[in-house]
Design a protein that fits this description.
- By secondary structure, the protein is of the alpha/beta class.
- It folds into three domains: about 270 residues, Response regulator (Rossmann fold); about 35 residues, no CATH class; about 160 residues, IlvD/EDD C-terminal domain-like (Glucose Oxidase, domain 1, 3-Layer(bba) Sandwich).
- The chain is about 40% helix and about 10% strand.
Length: about 575
Protein backbone atom coordinates (compact mmCIF):
# COMPACT_ATOMS: atom_id res chain seq x y z
CA UNK A 1 0.00 0.00 0.00
CA UNK A 2 1.34 3.44 -0.90
CA UNK A 3 2.23 5.68 2.03
CA UNK A 4 0.70 9.12 2.22
CA UNK A 5 3.29 11.57 0.97
CA UNK A 6 3.90 14.57 3.23
CA UNK A 7 3.42 17.68 1.08
CA UNK A 8 6.22 20.21 1.13
CA UNK A 9 5.39 23.69 2.30
CA UNK A 10 4.51 25.88 -0.66
CA UNK A 11 6.50 29.11 -0.41
CA UNK A 12 4.53 30.63 -3.28
CA UNK A 13 1.13 30.33 -1.56
CA UNK A 14 -0.79 33.57 -1.23
CA UNK A 15 -1.69 34.07 2.46
CA UNK A 16 -3.59 37.27 1.70
CA UNK A 17 -6.29 35.12 0.08
CA UNK A 18 -6.80 32.98 3.16
CA UNK A 19 -9.68 33.46 5.56
CA UNK A 20 -7.35 33.22 8.55
CA UNK A 21 -5.01 35.90 7.19
CA UNK A 22 -7.88 38.28 6.46
CA UNK A 23 -9.19 37.76 9.99
CA UNK A 24 -5.80 38.26 11.63
CA UNK A 25 -4.90 41.34 9.58
CA UNK A 26 -8.20 43.16 10.07
CA UNK A 27 -7.36 46.84 10.53
CA UNK A 28 -8.30 48.94 13.54
CA UNK A 29 -9.58 47.88 16.94
CA UNK A 30 -10.89 44.43 15.85
CA UNK A 31 -7.47 43.43 14.52
CA UNK A 32 -5.74 44.64 17.68
CA UNK A 33 -8.06 42.57 19.86
CA UNK A 34 -7.74 39.47 17.69
CA UNK A 35 -3.96 39.50 17.73
CA UNK A 36 -4.02 40.25 21.47
CA UNK A 37 -6.26 37.26 22.14
CA UNK A 38 -3.97 35.05 20.09
CA UNK A 39 -1.01 36.33 22.11
CA UNK A 40 -2.92 35.60 25.35
CA UNK A 41 -2.77 31.86 24.62
CA UNK A 42 0.92 32.00 23.77
CA UNK A 43 1.00 32.55 20.00
CA UNK A 44 2.57 35.48 18.26
CA UNK A 45 1.32 36.77 14.92
CA UNK A 46 4.67 35.81 13.35
CA UNK A 47 3.92 32.13 14.14
CA UNK A 48 0.28 32.00 13.08
CA UNK A 49 0.11 34.78 10.53
CA UNK A 50 1.84 33.16 7.56
CA UNK A 51 0.42 29.63 7.94
CA UNK A 52 -2.87 28.06 6.83
CA UNK A 53 -5.14 27.67 9.85
CA UNK A 54 -6.52 24.17 10.36
CA UNK A 55 -9.48 23.58 12.64
CA UNK A 56 -9.56 20.19 14.37
CA UNK A 57 -13.16 19.31 15.16
CA UNK A 58 -13.26 16.98 18.15
CA UNK A 59 -16.48 15.15 19.13
CA UNK A 60 -15.00 13.41 22.18
CA UNK A 61 -16.54 13.51 25.63
CA UNK A 62 -16.41 11.26 28.68
CA UNK A 63 -19.83 9.99 27.62
CA UNK A 64 -18.28 8.61 24.43
CA UNK A 65 -16.05 5.61 25.22
CA UNK A 66 -15.58 4.87 21.51
CA UNK A 67 -13.59 8.10 21.29
CA UNK A 68 -11.54 7.96 24.49
CA UNK A 69 -8.37 7.99 22.36
CA UNK A 70 -9.25 11.21 20.51
CA UNK A 71 -6.94 13.45 22.60
CA UNK A 72 -4.09 11.24 21.40
CA UNK A 73 -5.25 11.54 17.79
CA UNK A 74 -5.57 15.32 18.10
CA UNK A 75 -1.89 15.44 19.09
CA UNK A 76 -0.98 13.35 16.04
CA UNK A 77 -3.01 15.58 13.70
CA UNK A 78 -1.33 18.66 15.15
CA UNK A 79 2.11 17.12 14.52
CA UNK A 80 1.19 16.65 10.89
CA UNK A 81 -0.22 20.17 10.53
CA UNK A 82 2.87 21.76 12.07
CA UNK A 83 5.18 19.63 9.93
CA UNK A 84 3.42 20.79 6.77
CA UNK A 85 3.60 24.46 7.75
CA UNK A 86 0.05 24.86 9.06
CA UNK A 87 -1.37 26.25 12.30
CA UNK A 88 -3.71 23.81 14.14
CA UNK A 89 -6.51 24.90 16.47
CA UNK A 90 -8.85 22.39 18.16
CA UNK A 91 -12.55 23.02 18.77
CA UNK A 92 -15.31 20.80 20.24
CA UNK A 93 -18.75 19.91 18.98
CA UNK A 94 -21.59 17.83 20.38
CA UNK A 95 -20.66 14.23 21.14
CA UNK A 96 -23.04 11.39 20.22
CA UNK A 97 -22.75 7.81 21.46
CA UNK A 98 -25.33 5.11 20.84
CA UNK A 99 -25.28 3.64 24.36
CA UNK A 100 -24.76 6.81 26.39
CA UNK A 101 -27.93 8.54 25.19
CA UNK A 102 -31.40 8.00 26.60
CA UNK A 103 -32.89 8.82 23.18
CA UNK A 104 -31.95 7.70 19.71
CA UNK A 105 -28.89 9.59 18.52
CA UNK A 106 -30.42 9.82 15.06
CA UNK A 107 -32.59 12.56 16.53
CA UNK A 108 -29.43 14.67 16.87
CA UNK A 109 -27.50 13.90 13.68
CA UNK A 110 -28.94 16.95 11.95
CA UNK A 111 -28.24 19.13 14.99
CA UNK A 112 -24.57 18.09 15.01
CA UNK A 113 -24.37 18.77 11.27
CA UNK A 114 -25.78 22.26 11.83
CA UNK A 115 -23.40 23.01 14.69
CA UNK A 116 -20.39 21.72 12.75
CA UNK A 117 -21.30 23.63 9.59
CA UNK A 118 -21.80 26.85 11.51
CA UNK A 119 -18.47 26.54 13.30
CA UNK A 120 -16.58 25.68 10.11
CA UNK A 121 -18.15 28.75 8.49
CA UNK A 122 -17.75 31.11 11.47
CA UNK A 123 -14.27 30.27 12.77
CA UNK A 124 -11.25 31.90 11.05
CA UNK A 125 -9.99 28.63 9.60
CA UNK A 126 -8.90 27.70 6.09
CA UNK A 127 -9.72 24.01 6.37
CA UNK A 128 -10.79 21.42 8.90
CA UNK A 129 -9.99 17.91 10.11
CA UNK A 130 -13.09 16.17 11.42
CA UNK A 131 -12.58 13.57 14.14
CA UNK A 132 -15.57 11.25 14.15
CA UNK A 133 -16.66 7.84 15.31
CA UNK A 134 -19.73 6.00 16.54
CA UNK A 135 -22.72 5.97 14.22
CA UNK A 136 -23.95 9.52 13.66
CA UNK A 137 -20.91 11.79 14.02
CA UNK A 138 -19.21 11.00 10.71
CA UNK A 139 -22.47 11.32 8.73
CA UNK A 140 -23.15 14.66 10.45
CA UNK A 141 -19.61 15.83 9.70
CA UNK A 142 -19.83 14.83 6.03
CA UNK A 143 -23.12 16.72 5.74
CA UNK A 144 -21.53 19.78 7.35
CA UNK A 145 -18.42 19.55 5.18
CA UNK A 146 -20.58 19.32 2.06
CA UNK A 147 -22.53 22.43 3.03
CA UNK A 148 -19.63 24.57 4.28
CA UNK A 149 -17.38 23.38 1.41
CA UNK A 150 -14.05 24.37 2.91
CA UNK A 151 -11.13 21.95 2.51
CA UNK A 152 -11.89 19.05 4.87
CA UNK A 153 -10.77 15.53 5.76
CA UNK A 154 -12.09 12.98 8.26
CA UNK A 155 -10.16 10.88 10.79
CA UNK A 156 -12.37 7.91 11.80
CA UNK A 157 -12.11 6.52 15.32
CA UNK A 158 -11.19 3.02 14.18
CA UNK A 159 -12.45 -0.30 15.57
CA UNK A 160 -11.95 -1.56 19.11
CA UNK A 161 -10.04 -4.69 19.97
CA UNK A 162 -12.05 -7.90 19.85
CA UNK A 163 -13.10 -9.67 23.04
CA UNK A 164 -12.84 -13.32 24.03
CA UNK A 165 -15.61 -15.20 25.83
CA UNK A 166 -15.45 -18.90 26.66
CA UNK A 167 -12.64 -19.41 24.17
CA UNK A 168 -14.25 -17.70 21.18
CA UNK A 169 -13.94 -14.23 19.68
CA UNK A 170 -16.77 -11.81 20.48
CA UNK A 171 -17.42 -8.39 19.03
CA UNK A 172 -19.56 -5.51 20.29
CA UNK A 173 -22.99 -5.17 18.75
CA UNK A 174 -23.46 -8.40 16.84
CA UNK A 175 -22.63 -10.78 19.67
CA UNK A 176 -24.57 -8.64 22.15
CA UNK A 177 -27.69 -9.24 20.05
CA UNK A 178 -27.09 -13.00 20.07
CA UNK A 179 -26.59 -13.04 23.83
CA UNK A 180 -29.72 -10.95 24.43
CA UNK A 181 -31.80 -13.40 22.38
CA UNK A 182 -30.27 -16.33 24.27
CA UNK A 183 -30.97 -14.72 27.65
CA UNK A 184 -34.55 -13.78 26.69
CA UNK A 185 -35.15 -17.36 25.55
CA UNK A 186 -33.84 -18.82 28.80
CA UNK A 187 -30.81 -20.34 27.09
CA UNK A 188 -28.23 -18.34 29.05
CA UNK A 189 -27.97 -17.40 32.75
CA UNK A 190 -27.63 -13.84 34.06
CA UNK A 191 -24.25 -14.80 35.54
CA UNK A 192 -23.01 -15.84 32.10
CA UNK A 193 -24.33 -12.59 30.64
CA UNK A 194 -22.36 -10.61 33.24
CA UNK A 195 -19.16 -12.46 32.33
CA UNK A 196 -19.87 -11.80 28.67
CA UNK A 197 -20.34 -8.08 29.31
CA UNK A 198 -16.94 -7.87 31.02
CA UNK A 199 -15.24 -9.51 28.02
CA UNK A 200 -17.04 -7.90 25.10
CA UNK A 201 -15.26 -4.54 24.57
CA UNK A 202 -11.61 -4.63 25.72
CA UNK A 203 -10.61 -1.19 24.40
CA UNK A 204 -11.85 2.13 23.06
CA UNK A 205 -12.96 2.30 19.44
CA UNK A 206 -16.07 1.52 17.48
CA UNK A 207 -17.70 -1.91 17.11
CA UNK A 208 -15.28 -4.33 15.43
CA UNK A 209 -17.91 -5.47 12.91
CA UNK A 210 -19.47 -3.91 9.83
CA UNK A 211 -21.85 -1.83 11.91
CA UNK A 212 -22.79 1.71 11.03
CA UNK A 213 -19.61 3.28 12.46
CA UNK A 214 -17.23 1.11 10.42
CA UNK A 215 -19.50 1.24 7.38
CA UNK A 216 -19.50 5.04 7.38
CA UNK A 217 -15.72 5.14 7.93
CA UNK A 218 -15.27 2.89 4.88
CA UNK A 219 -17.66 4.95 2.77
CA UNK A 220 -15.91 8.15 3.84
CA UNK A 221 -12.68 6.72 2.44
CA UNK A 222 -14.48 5.57 -0.71
CA UNK A 223 -15.80 9.11 -1.16
CA UNK A 224 -12.26 10.53 -0.96
CA UNK A 225 -12.66 12.23 2.42
CA UNK A 226 -9.86 10.39 4.27
CA UNK A 227 -6.22 9.74 3.52
CA UNK A 228 -5.51 6.48 1.75
CA UNK A 229 -6.15 3.38 3.87
CA UNK A 230 -7.33 5.26 6.97
CA UNK A 231 -10.81 3.82 7.48
CA UNK A 232 -10.16 0.61 9.41
CA UNK A 233 -6.89 0.88 11.34
CA UNK A 234 -7.45 -0.17 14.95
CA UNK A 235 -8.29 2.55 17.45
CA UNK A 236 -5.34 1.63 19.67
CA UNK A 237 -2.88 0.89 16.84
CA UNK A 238 0.12 2.96 15.84
CA UNK A 239 -1.28 2.89 12.29
CA UNK A 240 -4.24 4.94 13.53
CA UNK A 241 -1.86 7.59 14.88
CA UNK A 242 0.19 7.60 11.68
CA UNK A 243 -2.90 8.08 9.52
CA UNK A 244 -4.00 10.94 11.81
CA UNK A 245 -0.60 12.57 11.41
CA UNK A 246 -0.76 12.06 7.63
CA UNK A 247 -4.20 13.70 7.65
CA UNK A 248 -2.69 16.76 9.33
CA UNK A 249 -0.12 17.11 6.55
CA UNK A 250 -2.65 16.38 3.82
CA UNK A 251 -5.20 18.98 4.92
CA UNK A 252 -2.56 21.72 4.62
CA UNK A 253 -1.90 20.52 1.09
CA UNK A 254 -5.63 20.60 0.28
CA UNK A 255 -5.87 24.17 1.60
CA UNK A 256 -2.97 25.29 -0.56
CA UNK A 257 -4.46 23.59 -3.63
CA UNK A 258 -7.97 24.77 -2.64
CA UNK A 259 -9.45 21.28 -3.00
CA UNK A 260 -12.92 21.24 -1.48
CA UNK A 261 -15.40 18.49 -0.51
CA UNK A 262 -17.55 19.25 -3.54
CA UNK A 263 -14.58 18.29 -5.76
CA UNK A 264 -14.05 15.00 -3.93
CA UNK A 265 -17.62 13.94 -3.14
CA UNK A 266 -18.92 13.98 -6.71
CA UNK A 267 -21.67 11.94 -8.34
CA UNK A 268 -18.98 9.51 -9.54
CA UNK A 269 -17.46 9.03 -6.09
CA UNK A 270 -20.98 8.61 -4.64
CA UNK A 271 -21.55 5.83 -7.16
CA UNK A 272 -18.27 4.23 -6.06
CA UNK A 273 -19.36 4.47 -2.42
CA UNK A 274 -22.63 2.67 -3.22
CA UNK A 275 -20.71 -0.24 -4.71
CA UNK A 276 -18.38 -0.39 -1.70
CA UNK A 277 -21.44 -0.38 0.59
CA UNK A 278 -23.15 -3.34 -1.06
CA UNK A 279 -19.90 -5.27 -1.66
CA UNK A 280 -18.98 -5.04 2.02
CA UNK A 281 -22.53 -5.84 3.20
CA UNK A 282 -22.53 -2.59 5.16
CA UNK A 283 -25.14 -1.09 7.44
CA UNK A 284 -28.57 -0.14 6.08
CA UNK A 285 -28.18 3.13 8.01
CA UNK A 286 -25.69 4.16 5.34
CA UNK A 287 -28.56 4.39 2.84
CA UNK A 288 -30.04 7.23 4.89
CA UNK A 289 -26.71 8.92 5.57
CA UNK A 290 -25.41 8.82 1.99
CA UNK A 291 -28.74 10.12 0.76
CA UNK A 292 -28.47 13.06 3.17
CA UNK A 293 -24.87 13.87 2.18
CA UNK A 294 -25.76 13.71 -1.51
CA UNK A 295 -28.72 15.99 -0.86
CA UNK A 296 -26.42 18.62 0.65
CA UNK A 297 -24.29 18.48 -2.52
CA UNK A 298 -27.24 18.65 -4.90
CA UNK A 299 -26.49 15.13 -6.18
CA UNK A 300 -29.48 13.01 -7.17
CA UNK A 301 -29.16 9.70 -5.29
CA UNK A 302 -32.56 7.96 -5.25
CA UNK A 303 -33.18 4.61 -3.59
CA UNK A 304 -33.11 3.02 -7.04
CA UNK A 305 -29.38 3.81 -7.15
CA UNK A 306 -28.76 1.64 -4.09
CA UNK A 307 -30.89 -1.17 -5.47
CA UNK A 308 -29.18 -1.04 -8.86
CA UNK A 309 -25.79 -1.23 -7.17
CA UNK A 310 -27.04 -4.14 -5.09
CA UNK A 311 -28.16 -6.08 -8.15
CA UNK A 312 -24.92 -5.89 -10.15
CA UNK A 313 -22.28 -5.64 -7.40
CA UNK A 314 -21.45 -8.94 -5.67
CA UNK A 315 -20.98 -9.42 -1.94
CA UNK A 316 -17.25 -9.79 -1.30
CA UNK A 317 -16.65 -9.35 2.44
CA UNK A 318 -17.10 -12.11 5.02
CA UNK A 319 -17.06 -9.75 8.01
CA UNK A 320 -19.57 -9.89 10.88
CA UNK A 321 -22.53 -9.71 10.88
CA UNK A 322 -22.20 -11.19 7.36
CA UNK A 323 -19.42 -13.64 8.14
CA UNK A 324 -16.96 -14.95 10.73
CA UNK A 325 -14.28 -12.24 10.48
CA UNK A 326 -13.82 -8.89 12.23
CA UNK A 327 -12.80 -5.44 11.05
CA UNK A 328 -9.24 -6.15 12.17
CA UNK A 329 -9.11 -9.07 9.73
CA UNK A 330 -10.49 -6.82 7.00
CA UNK A 331 -7.83 -4.20 7.75
CA UNK A 332 -5.04 -6.77 7.65
CA UNK A 333 -6.35 -7.95 4.28
CA UNK A 334 -5.88 -4.41 2.95
CA UNK A 335 -9.04 -2.62 4.05
CA UNK A 336 -10.94 -0.28 1.75
CA UNK A 337 -8.07 0.06 -0.79
CA UNK A 338 -8.00 -3.73 -1.26
CA UNK A 339 -11.78 -3.88 -1.59
CA UNK A 340 -11.80 -1.05 -4.13
CA UNK A 341 -8.91 -2.71 -5.99
CA UNK A 342 -11.07 -5.83 -6.30
CA UNK A 343 -14.08 -3.75 -7.38
CA UNK A 344 -12.10 -1.56 -9.78
CA UNK A 345 -13.72 -2.95 -12.97
CA UNK A 346 -17.05 -1.68 -11.58
CA UNK A 347 -15.80 1.70 -10.29
CA UNK A 348 -15.19 5.11 -11.81
CA UNK A 349 -11.44 5.12 -11.25
CA UNK A 350 -10.91 8.62 -12.68
CA UNK A 351 -12.21 10.37 -9.56
CA UNK A 352 -9.92 12.81 -7.75
CA UNK A 353 -8.39 11.74 -4.45
CA UNK A 354 -7.02 13.91 -1.59
CA UNK A 355 -3.48 12.96 -2.63
CA UNK A 356 -3.96 14.81 -5.93
CA UNK A 357 -3.84 11.53 -7.80
CA UNK A 358 -6.70 9.72 -9.51
CA UNK A 359 -8.16 6.61 -7.94
CA UNK A 360 -6.67 4.44 -10.69
CA UNK A 361 -3.17 5.62 -9.71
CA UNK A 362 -3.73 4.84 -6.04
CA UNK A 363 -5.20 1.40 -6.69
CA UNK A 364 -2.28 0.49 -8.95
CA UNK A 365 -0.13 0.24 -5.81
CA UNK A 366 -2.52 -2.13 -3.99
CA UNK A 367 -1.97 -5.91 -4.25
CA UNK A 368 -4.91 -8.25 -4.77
CA UNK A 369 -6.33 -9.92 -1.68
CA UNK A 370 -5.82 -13.49 -0.56
CA UNK A 371 -9.54 -14.04 -1.00
CA UNK A 372 -10.06 -15.13 2.61
CA UNK A 373 -11.71 -12.00 4.06
CA UNK A 374 -12.27 -10.04 0.85
CA UNK A 375 -13.33 -12.48 -1.86
CA UNK A 376 -12.08 -12.17 -5.43
CA UNK A 377 -14.48 -10.48 -7.85
CA UNK A 378 -14.62 -13.61 -9.98
CA UNK A 379 -15.44 -15.77 -6.92
CA UNK A 380 -17.83 -13.67 -4.80
CA UNK A 381 -19.59 -14.82 -1.65
CA UNK A 382 -22.91 -14.00 -3.31
CA UNK A 383 -23.61 -12.77 -6.85
CA UNK A 384 -25.61 -9.82 -5.53
CA UNK A 385 -24.56 -7.28 -2.91
CA UNK A 386 -25.77 -6.79 0.62
CA UNK A 387 -28.69 -4.37 0.21
CA UNK A 388 -32.03 -4.56 -1.61
CA UNK A 389 -34.80 -1.97 -1.92
CA UNK A 390 -38.35 -3.36 -1.94
CA UNK A 391 -41.57 -1.60 -2.85
CA UNK A 392 -45.29 -2.29 -2.95
CA UNK A 393 -48.52 -1.03 -1.47
CA UNK A 394 -47.02 -1.43 2.01
CA UNK A 395 -43.96 0.69 1.09
CA UNK A 396 -44.73 2.75 -2.03
CA UNK A 397 -41.71 5.01 -1.38
CA UNK A 398 -39.47 2.06 -0.64
CA UNK A 399 -38.05 -0.01 2.19
CA UNK A 400 -34.62 -1.55 2.73
CA UNK A 401 -33.42 -5.08 3.52
CA UNK A 402 -29.85 -6.05 4.39
CA UNK A 403 -29.80 -9.27 2.40
CA UNK A 404 -26.24 -10.16 3.44
CA UNK A 405 -27.36 -10.53 7.07
CA UNK A 406 -30.77 -12.10 6.28
CA UNK A 407 -31.88 -15.69 5.70
CA UNK A 408 -32.12 -16.62 2.00
CA UNK A 409 -34.86 -19.10 2.87
CA UNK A 410 -37.10 -16.13 3.76
CA UNK A 411 -36.42 -14.12 0.59
CA UNK A 412 -39.76 -15.37 -0.75
CA UNK A 413 -42.23 -15.50 2.09
CA UNK A 414 -45.93 -15.12 2.74
CA UNK A 415 -47.36 -14.92 6.24
CA UNK A 416 -49.95 -13.26 8.43
CA UNK A 417 -49.17 -9.91 10.03
CA UNK A 418 -48.83 -9.54 13.79
CA UNK A 419 -48.95 -5.79 14.37
CA UNK A 420 -47.48 -3.76 17.24
CA UNK A 421 -47.90 0.00 17.64
CA UNK A 422 -44.90 0.56 19.94
CA UNK A 423 -41.65 -1.00 21.04
CA UNK A 424 -43.11 -1.40 24.52
CA UNK A 425 -46.08 -3.35 23.14
CA UNK A 426 -43.71 -5.60 21.21
CA UNK A 427 -41.41 -6.35 24.12
CA UNK A 428 -44.37 -6.89 26.43
CA UNK A 429 -45.83 -9.49 24.07
CA UNK A 430 -42.49 -11.23 23.60
CA UNK A 431 -41.79 -11.09 27.33
CA UNK A 432 -45.06 -12.85 28.05
CA UNK A 433 -44.00 -15.66 25.75
CA UNK A 434 -45.58 -14.64 22.44
CA UNK A 435 -47.18 -18.06 22.33
CA UNK A 436 -49.81 -17.00 19.79
CA UNK A 437 -47.12 -16.10 17.23
CA UNK A 438 -46.16 -18.71 14.62
CA UNK A 439 -42.86 -19.13 12.80
CA UNK A 440 -44.44 -18.10 9.47
CA UNK A 441 -46.03 -14.94 10.85
CA UNK A 442 -44.69 -11.52 9.83
CA UNK A 443 -43.97 -9.22 12.78
CA UNK A 444 -44.69 -5.51 12.22
CA UNK A 445 -43.47 -2.73 14.53
CA UNK A 446 -44.69 0.71 13.44
CA UNK A 447 -44.65 4.35 14.60
CA UNK A 448 -40.84 4.23 14.71
CA UNK A 449 -40.05 6.53 11.78
CA UNK A 450 -38.48 10.01 11.72
CA UNK A 451 -41.72 11.61 12.93
CA UNK A 452 -43.23 8.72 14.86
CA UNK A 453 -40.10 7.89 16.86
CA UNK A 454 -39.30 10.72 16.84
CA UNK A 455 -35.86 10.37 15.31
CA UNK A 456 -36.26 6.92 13.77
CA UNK A 457 -34.82 4.71 16.55
CA UNK A 458 -32.97 1.47 15.91
CA UNK A 459 -35.67 -1.08 16.75
CA UNK A 460 -34.87 -3.83 14.26
CA UNK A 461 -32.59 -5.61 16.71
CA UNK A 462 -35.22 -5.16 19.44
CA UNK A 463 -37.61 -7.39 17.48
CA UNK A 464 -36.58 -10.56 19.27
CA UNK A 465 -38.05 -13.90 18.31
CA UNK A 466 -40.70 -15.29 20.65
CA UNK A 467 -38.88 -17.41 23.25
CA UNK A 468 -40.87 -20.54 22.45
CA UNK A 469 -39.86 -20.34 18.79
CA UNK A 470 -36.21 -19.64 19.67
CA UNK A 471 -36.15 -22.67 22.00
CA UNK A 472 -37.64 -24.74 19.18
CA UNK A 473 -34.67 -23.84 16.97
CA UNK A 474 -36.22 -21.05 14.91
CA UNK A 475 -33.45 -18.52 14.24
CA UNK A 476 -35.14 -15.96 11.99
CA UNK A 477 -38.52 -14.53 10.99
CA UNK A 478 -39.63 -11.80 8.60
CA UNK A 479 -39.93 -8.54 10.51
CA UNK A 480 -40.99 -5.12 9.18
CA UNK A 481 -40.63 -1.64 10.66
CA UNK A 482 -40.58 2.03 9.69
CA UNK A 483 -37.66 2.41 12.10
CA UNK A 484 -34.03 1.45 11.61
CA UNK A 485 -31.78 -1.48 12.46
CA UNK A 486 -28.29 -1.39 13.91
CA UNK A 487 -25.60 -2.23 11.39
CA UNK A 488 -24.30 -4.77 13.89
CA UNK A 489 -27.60 -6.67 13.86
CA UNK A 490 -28.76 -9.51 11.65
CA UNK A 491 -31.96 -11.18 10.51
CA UNK A 492 -34.61 -10.76 7.81
CA UNK A 493 -35.74 -7.33 8.98
CA UNK A 494 -37.23 -4.90 6.44
CA UNK A 495 -36.55 -1.35 7.64
CA UNK A 496 -37.11 2.29 6.62
CA UNK A 497 -40.64 1.64 5.35
CA UNK A 498 -41.77 4.85 3.64
CA UNK A 499 -44.04 6.65 4.04
CA UNK A 500 -43.92 5.91 7.75
CA UNK A 501 -47.06 5.11 9.73
CA UNK A 502 -47.06 8.47 11.54
CA UNK A 503 -47.10 10.27 8.17
CA UNK A 504 -50.12 8.31 6.96
CA UNK A 505 -48.24 5.44 5.33
CA UNK A 506 -49.92 2.13 4.59
CA UNK A 507 -47.94 0.50 7.39
CA UNK A 508 -50.32 2.29 9.73
CA UNK A 509 -53.27 0.57 8.02
CA UNK A 510 -52.03 -3.01 8.43
CA UNK A 511 -53.99 -5.17 10.85
CA UNK A 512 -53.10 -8.38 12.62
CA UNK A 513 -54.06 -11.28 10.39
CA UNK A 514 -53.49 -9.44 7.09
CA UNK A 515 -51.53 -11.50 4.54
CA UNK A 516 -48.04 -10.07 3.84
CA UNK A 517 -45.84 -10.99 0.89
CA UNK A 518 -42.07 -10.45 0.68
CA UNK A 519 -40.29 -11.30 -2.57
CA UNK A 520 -36.71 -10.07 -2.53
CA UNK A 521 -35.94 -11.14 -6.08
CA UNK A 522 -39.00 -9.27 -7.38
CA UNK A 523 -38.24 -6.43 -4.92
CA UNK A 524 -41.80 -6.62 -3.61
CA UNK A 525 -43.31 -5.92 -0.18
CA UNK A 526 -47.09 -6.10 -0.31
CA UNK A 527 -50.13 -6.16 1.89
CA UNK A 528 -52.61 -8.57 0.25
CA UNK A 529 -55.56 -6.28 0.85
CA UNK A 530 -57.59 -4.60 -1.89
CA UNK A 531 -57.12 -0.94 -2.70
CA UNK A 532 -60.78 -0.36 -1.77
CA UNK A 533 -60.24 -1.90 1.68
CA UNK A 534 -57.11 0.21 2.25
CA UNK A 535 -59.00 3.35 1.21
CA UNK A 536 -61.76 2.46 3.66
CA UNK A 537 -59.22 1.94 6.45
CA UNK A 538 -57.56 5.23 5.63
CA UNK A 539 -60.85 7.00 6.35
CA UNK A 540 -61.18 5.36 9.76
CA UNK A 541 -57.71 4.31 10.93
CA UNK A 542 -56.05 7.65 11.51
CA UNK A 543 -52.29 7.79 12.28
CA UNK A 544 -51.45 7.75 15.95
CA UNK A 545 -51.25 11.35 17.14
CA UNK A 546 -47.72 12.62 17.64
CA UNK A 547 -47.64 14.36 21.05
CA UNK A 548 -46.37 17.93 21.26
CA UNK A 549 -42.60 18.10 21.49
CA UNK A 550 -40.44 20.61 23.35
CA UNK A 551 -37.65 22.72 21.86
CA UNK A 552 -35.43 21.02 19.32
CA UNK A 553 -37.72 17.99 19.01
CA UNK A 554 -40.51 20.29 17.86
CA UNK A 555 -38.29 21.65 15.09
CA UNK A 556 -37.20 18.12 14.19
CA UNK A 557 -40.73 16.77 13.78
CA UNK A 558 -41.81 19.84 11.81
CA UNK A 559 -38.93 19.77 9.32
CA UNK A 560 -37.47 16.24 9.05
CA UNK A 561 -37.75 14.60 5.65
CA UNK A 562 -38.72 10.97 5.13
CA UNK A 563 -36.32 8.04 5.28
CA UNK A 564 -36.12 7.67 1.51
CA UNK A 565 -34.92 11.30 1.35
CA UNK A 566 -32.24 10.88 4.03
CA UNK A 567 -34.03 12.29 7.10
CA UNK A 568 -32.34 15.68 6.65
CA UNK A 569 -34.16 18.90 7.49
CA UNK A 570 -36.04 20.34 4.53
CA UNK A 571 -34.33 23.71 5.02
CA UNK A 572 -30.82 22.17 4.92
CA UNK A 573 -31.11 20.09 1.75
CA UNK A 574 -29.61 21.43 -1.44
CA UNK A 575 -26.36 23.01 -2.52
CA UNK A 576 -25.58 26.26 -0.70
Amino acid sequence: MVREQIPQRDATSAPATRRSTAWLQTPGRPGILRRAMLASIGYGASVAGDRPWVGICNTWSEFNPCQAHFPRLVAAIKRGVWAAGGFPMEFPTMSLHEQFFTRTTMLYRNLVSMETEELISALPIDGVVLLGGCDKTIPAQLMAAASADLPALVVPAGPSLEGCFEGRTVRAGTDATRVWQARASGLMSQEDVARFEAALVPSCGTCAVFGTATTMACLTEALGMTVFGAATHGAVSAARDRSAEATGTRIVDLIRRDVRPSQLMTAASMSNALRVLVAMGGSTNAVIHLRAVAGRLGIDLPLESFDAAGRDTPLLCSVAPNGPNGVGDFDREGGVPALMRELSPLLDVDVLRPSGRRLTEELATVPRTSGEVIARLERPLRPEGGIAVVRGNLAPDGAVLKTSAASPGLFQHEGCAVVFDSREDYLRAIGSGGTDIGADDVLILRNQGPIGGPGMPEVGQDMLLPPALARAGITDMVRITDGRMSGTAFGTVVVHVAPEAAAGGALGLARTGDPIRLDVQARELSLAVTAEELASRARTDKPRAVPPRPGYESMYVAHVESADRGCDFDFLSGRR
